[in-house]
Amino acid sequence: MMKERILQIGKTGEESLPAITTMAGLQAWEVEYLGRKSELNTLLKSLRDLSPEEKKIVGPLGNSTKQKLIALFDTKKKKLLENSIDWQAEGVDITAPGAKVAIGHLNPLTQIEHEIQDIFTSMGFVVADGPEVETEHYNFDALNFPKDHPSRDMQDTFWIKPDKKAKERYLPRTHTSGVQVRYMEAHKPPLRIIVPGKVFRNEATDASHEHTFHQFECLMVDVEGQVTVATFKYVAETFFSAFFGEKVTVRLRPSFFPFTEPSFEFDISCIICGAHGCATCKHSGWLEIGGAGMVNQRVFEAAGYKRGQYQGFAWGFGMARLAMMKYKIADIRLLMSGDLRFIRQF
Ligand code: DAH
User: Fold this and answer.
1) pLDDT at 152
2) Percent of the chain surpassing pLDDT 90
3) Residue 318 lies in a domain
4) What's the 152 CA to ligand 1 centre distance in angstroms?
5) What is the reported pTM?
6) 293: alpha, beta or left, given left = phi > 0 and alpha = psi -120 to 50?
7) Does one domain contain both 230 and 335?
8) Which range marks the domain in which residue 67 is found?
9) 110-143 pLDDT, tens per residue?
């Protein structure tokens, strides 16, 4: 009878296991009891020839026997593996705690960028971006730079070798401000964006200057009267207080940029000394942060808006400076150096 034969196979299989002491022995056992050509497998395959009544009894028995043998095999295999290495003789202390695996992490600049994005998105701003290789139109013309403005000079800008067929000149963008125009061309106010990104300048490097650095632009526009200098000051103070985790005040000084009118340089109260005066703020209590202003109506016009319809503020400044202030980093060049001794500190 098939039923008895299956029970018998299960029994001899189980009983023959304890005598096995080697992996090779266990493999032979596996072939004999669980292999494709094993008796059990052949029996299971012939089940289909049985009557339905017989199938009901023999089928489940065959399967449970197979499962039992598989479980026995797994346990035995584990035991053999454990015993096959004499840990003590190998000098391995298997109770010792594991070695910590070193994993990579983000550059402090990227961490700062993420923090900035978090704060601004919580204030309803959208993160926008634009191409790193920009046209002269978006980088300069649309931002109201005069044709003979000195920053278009070779000394400040890396121009891309002109293609004879190209209608425009291209350059690695010198600031993120061009994205203001690109974004406004595609969206109508009210709008609030920040634009974090890489910019490039033909400059000699020193402890506070890099030829490639990260800026972040901010732009908020609404109908006339909705976004004023007071709005700008409020947004700036809210952002910097959240970023540095303490109350920060903003001070504006008159300045000039072609794309803003009026324009400001803006400073924040020194977060190193709490505005009492220290070496970092040159005993003034203020730290210079960057440029800002109310968007020049000519920029709105370049983006296709009607003059006098909208009002907004914009600012742009270096992200590295913020990272340097927050983490007290003395030399900007460390940030992009790829020096692991530096990176691993963050
Ligand atoms: N684009 C300027 C720069 O690269 C910074 C700047 C100044 C951006 C004033 C602005 C602004 O949006 O309003 O130095």
Assistant:
1) 81
2) 62
3) yes
4) 15
5) 0.71
6) left
7) yes
8) 2-90
9) 999 999 999 999 999 999 999 999 999 999 999 9
